[in-house]
Amino acid sequence: MKKLILSALFLNAIVFAQSVDYNFEQYTSNYTNLNNPISINSNLIWDDETYNINLGFDVKLFNITTQNMIITGKVNLNVMNLSMVNSIVASNADLVDRGFHTDELVSLSPISYQIDELNGSKVLKVEWKNARFYIDDENRNYVNYQIWVFENSNRIEIHYGPSNTDNFNYGWVNDFCAVSEMVSHQEAHSFMVQEIDDEFNFSYQNVDEIFTVSTFTKIPEEGTVFCFNPTNQVSLKEKEKLGAIYPNPVTQFLNIENQEREKIDYKIRSLDGRIVQEGTSSLGKIQLNLAGLKQGIYLLNHQTNKIEVKEYIAKL
Q: Is residue 187 located within the same domain as residue 216?
């Protein structure tokens, strides 16, 4: 129980130390191959090549704004500022073209992109199609991924397509999913999806010499979408205007003070991004009954039309 309480306090400290934070959502959607793709690997067999994508519009990942994204070997997109690199990692697995170390002369696993428009904004979609794991010498397994990056909102989506990992120990590839910020040459941090107790969970990690990850033992099912939504954190003074949240840790009733009786929208998410409770209230003290939730860490989002605050809650 002490471990759970300390985790909640640690996560709270993290949330308000960062200038950019990320909400996490998980849902399912039909996976569709890109319909008008532009080749990135130029039909050449690939292993650890580096590719540049010129977007023609601005995207921002943490503190770096750019119109150029870089692929560096794995299923990732990177942005650079001088010597600093921020990354979107859809898969940490070491993937290669299925034509690699075969007699094939052209790529069997195209890497491509297209730029679509949605509600007046552009969306970059990058696709890794029919790739295989480097350590799969028999070349029987395949995976499909897409990374979507949205203009203006800077929302990031990881889309999982059809895969085959039969007769293959997927746990060997040390896979996870993350968005990472390089703060200095000695410091970085990640908002990460790991697998814990057979479920995909969202967490924050300081990346240092003792950094450990609970890697995936199974690839997410076809149609799974992991979403990272950036939100700029409010100041502690603004947070206080929205009202206190107590008790934390909580066993049954969680209270949100609302002295100005503004309309507050609230959502409670589990660490795998699923909404477990939501609603709207203008009461002076909003009371949420969490008795039905399992013990664990949850993320509370509550906002007015002016302020949004996020708080990690420990349910005992």
A: yes
| Same domain membership, residue 243 and residue 222 | no
pLDDT digits (tens, 9 = 90+) for 18-58: 446 787 888 899 999 999 999 999 999 999 889 999 999 99
SS3 255: strand
The residues, ordered by sequence, that sit 6+ positions from 54 with a Cβ below 8 Å of its Cβ are 67, 68
Structure tokens at 251: 């066993």
pLDDT in tens, 153-173: 899 999 999 998 876 667 677
pLDDT of residue 12: 39
Q: How many Å separate Cα 268 from the centre of its chain?
A: 17
CA triplet 51, 126, 89: central angle to 5 degrees?
Answer: 80
Within 10 A of 150 (CB to CB), how many other CB atoms are there?
A: 18
Q: Residues 226, 244: one domain?
A: no
Question: Using an 8 Å Cβ cutoff, are 92 and 101 in contact?
Answer: no
Buried-state track 264-281, b at ≥16 Cβ within 10 A, e below 16: bebbbbbbbbeeebeeeb
Taking 50 as the threshold, does the pLDDT of residue 190 lie above it?
Answer: yes
Q: What share of the chain is helix, strand, coil (3-state, %, to 5)?
A: 10, 50, 40
Q: What is the pLDDT of residues 261-290, one digit of tens each?
A: 888 889 998 877 788 999 999 998 999 999
> Cα–Cα distance between 101 and 96 in angstroms, integer?
10
Only one residue has tokens 């149609």, namely: 223
Residue 1 lies in a domain: no
- pTM for the complete prediction? 0.71
The C-alpha atoms of residue 195 and residue 205 are separated, in whole angstroms, by: 14
135: amino acid identity, one letter: I
The residue whose two tokens read 């939100």 is: 231
